[in-house]
Amino acid sequence: MSAPKRLRTRKPGTMTTAWSDPADGGAGGLPGCGEAPADVRGVAEPAGRAHPAADPSGPGDAPVASGGGVMSSSSSSQDESDEEALSLEPMLIRLAELQRRLLYWSVDHPADCAVEQQRSTLPAQRKKLKEAVDKLSTRIKLLLPCTLHPLFDRRNAVLYLSVPRRAAKLCELLRPNPGRHSLQDKEVDCELVRRAVKELHQNRFDARIFGTIVGFPGMGKTYLMRLLLMSQAASAPASSAAVEIESDEVMSWWMSVPLFVISFNGITSATSIDLLLAALGYELPGVVRLLFSEMMRQDGGSDFATFRAAMLEALQAGKLSPSTLLMLVNYVRRTRCREQLDRHPTFVGILLADELVQLSRAPPPSPTRLQRSQRGRRSGGQPLPLPSSSSDLRRCNASSSSDVDGSPATWTPREATQGANEAMAGHAVTTPVMHGARVAELTRSALCSTAKNHSLLLCVSSFSEGFIIREQTASGSVPVRIGFLQLVEATRVAAAVSQVLCERKKGFQVTSKSGTTSVLTTETVGMCLGVLAGGHPRAAEVLITSIEASRHGEPFLSNFLSRLEPGKLSLASSSVDTLCEYPAVVAVGLLGYEVDPEVPFCDSIPWDHVYAQGALTRGVLDRTHRRATRSASRFGAPASPIYSTRLNVAFLLEVLKRKPSRARMESDVGEQSPAATVVDQDLYAALHHVRAALETGDAAVAWERFVFSGLTAVSHARRICSQKLGSLVRDGQEQPPLHQTTLLDLFPASSPYVGDAPWLEAAEVDASRAFVGVRLFRNYTELLAMDDEELLKYVWQAEQSNFPAVDGVIFFKCTGCTVAAGPRRGKLVAVMLQLKRKEKINLAKDVIKSAVSAAAAFGVIAGTSSWSRRTAFIVLSHRELPRRRDVDLVHAVAAPVIVVDQLGLIATFGPGLHALIQSSAIAFGTQVVDVTSASSLEG
Questions:
Q1: What per-residue confidence (pLDDT) applies to 697?
Q2: Which sequence spans correspond to the domains of the chain?
Q3: Of the spans 53-62, 475-484, 739-748, which averages the highest pLDDT?
Q4: In CATH, what class is 749-903?
């Protein structure tokens, strides 16, 4: 780069003349909104390194030529002389004003508004303006490294493009994984945009806020940012729909606010170079990305890795300073933003920062690069900070996942600088300048401050609530959730699966042990795979991809699981390990309880740790698909978003593959249990029995085994949750304490599928006690001869397959009842179970007659004891019951009878095991086959 010309020092009091145009009136824009923004600093920031000098004046502060026209030739020589005296920062401010006028020229000078006399002079004025821009740009380039010169190319740089072309180019920085093409829903997308825009508009006058989008990996954070960016482009589908939904005022505001984009993923992913940049200024990893995004060429040819390395080299060599880069940020903002600050006193643009927390995962620099960087110096001559002790080295080399999932970093910059001189004296350098987690924290705060100093609103995406909350603590900023990411409902996945099956001419063939084969309908396959995805968008995409990639006769599940590896889903590598190590996480996922991310669950680790890793799927439940339970009906539906927790079924299967079966649980039904104390790890053993049940070839036998094993497993989950969780919330509804729950809470149904027995809802039982296993019984006499503790310990299964009216019995202890005809406190309640897989249930024959028969048989053995008022008959149906019911159990039978269909089984077994019920048709032994036509899939 050639040496810059020596600049003349301007004499005190010298005035400069700004360019203007006739239609501008000194403002240069639409009426009332074309004036260049004044320089608003926002929240004051302490003096420190890498902060630019205060702007001497905004563009509007310079005098305007008389009459508002282009300056006359008599003043040209004076202006040129003044420009010769300007330093870099005033020249950038001047150039930004000129570039902005060129950028919005067609808006400021509409052909139908200009008078004929002015219209004839516009071409000459525009030509003169371009000449001034070119001349000033040339002078500025002499003061900057050539790597930054593309920023001033108004023909190719993104900074100067129209909104649609600019949005399309910036979208290259926001590449969602998955792209969600198969799962796109226009209404959902428009709702996301509408809600985000509304939140931003409502908080536009609050200088303390920063926008946040929080969700686990693959939930759609980047996708939402991309939607926001494209919503401002006229061709974007989300734009027109959003206009219809929102008021003209809100959308007019939104369409006028410039968006700036940076990303720490994709083509601008975080690397060790960012750690070295942060050592020179914590805002630099973000600032370098912002400048790169604005200087990208519309015709391609931009390479971020090369640009970032050149910036680091120039900064370390002292050829460039952080303050100069911040001047360029100010230039970018002034060029693009044109709203008056008296109308929007806090910010005039929005900065979208995607995946900032990826800095936590940046690998340490290699020893060679780190040693080379030590030869560089900061602009102030200070050495780069290095760890000072062996403890610092261990902390520095530790995995950054602790901060990614919400745990705070403890290594401070002061600790890092203590040993810098020793390191510079020749000691070997083997560690990064600073731990990636700490860099992410400091960069986030620096970006918040930089954005406020440049009148920009920062909006960040993160899969960690803790990462957001710590910024609120550090700077007093107020996080505002602008995106409530929804779970992907099974129906959306089912529709996408059906489309793929038809397009690819594929089907799912089931081969049972009896030798018969069948091809499942697309509807069945779609719903099975929909619940298998567990609400996870990325898992759903991998699922659909695995269908497309499956070869004829290839088992589907193994193919799917091979593509569902945590590493391939960009989840933390320890997500499945967390499920293996912490039974409480599995228990919460099985029962679908929602836990506040800030609540600690083990060793002071917050639940944010679990959600951020993706071990559980947490998102907003769609209002139209919220599950209704009897307990939920007691409370009004809240207006705020309802969060729901799900356990990815595929991850659960992976956990069971890694966890060996424990000898504590009996390996076969009927074996004697060691009757040892129940521990949390027994949950995994119970789940192994659940998996074994699903692998049974005969569907009817599999259903029976699943129910008994599932009741055992879910009892362990309830016991753990009762001990670990302070409150129980599912799908936005607070649940009763597990030791004070009713049978209708455990086996939910509504009239007319509930018999005339008030105590079913009034009597409370203790459901927090775990069953240690499944045991066979021959008859009621043998069963009732046992003591209470023995009865409470097991799920009891009838030894004979043709046992009259009953397949099994479970017992609970009553903890209270307000109905005289019900059980008394401390007494046992017997629940007699009958299992149905029939598609159609005849209430009169299959339920009422069986209930009466079972009650009579049990009463003969019980005699005149109180069992008659503490025995319930419950039917568990694998099918969904018809909506039109010809028989009302309330009037048909005067007995405590409950019929639970597939929807109610969600509360009985929890959404985790219920997902296994729904996906059991394709989960095991199912292979993908090629079919000759789409119509044959329906056979």
A1: 65
A2: 22-143, 163-270+341-378+389-483, 489-736+921-939, 749-903
A3: 739-748
A4: alpha beta
